[in-house]
Amino acid sequence: MKIKNFKIIPYEYIGELYFGETRTEIRKKYSEYEEFKKTPFSINTMDAYEDCHLGYNENDELEFVETFPGVNVSIFGNEISFKKKYFEVKKYLKELDENIQEDENGLTSYKYGVGITLENKSGLNMDIQSVFIFCKNYYEN
Fold it and tell me: Which of 42, 84, 85, 92 is the least buried, fewest Cβ under 10 Å from its Cβ?
């Protein structure tokens, strides 16, 4: 998968990947992947592509996408990508969702199904390590 621009529609899709779409359907569209387990305790395997990781539920339906540097992610027409510093992205997302949950690892908007993970965790110029986009009820399972 060599998609460099992902548009998010919360809880529906990111780019051409639709939540609820099966692993088989996705693999028909994007064939170059490596299957792996994120942790020894993972319920299901994930698919690693060049620019993102795809996570599936126990029915092999897409439930989250994690993107990495080199990919541009946008929500409602605004970029929340790696070109920006964390404080800029956080400010924009807080304008959309005043109930963002933030901790030492980054932030999560449950309202819009988006999480940001930090790489450099000190000062105002913190770097974004990954952007995590998840399906509705992901954290309720």
Answer: 42
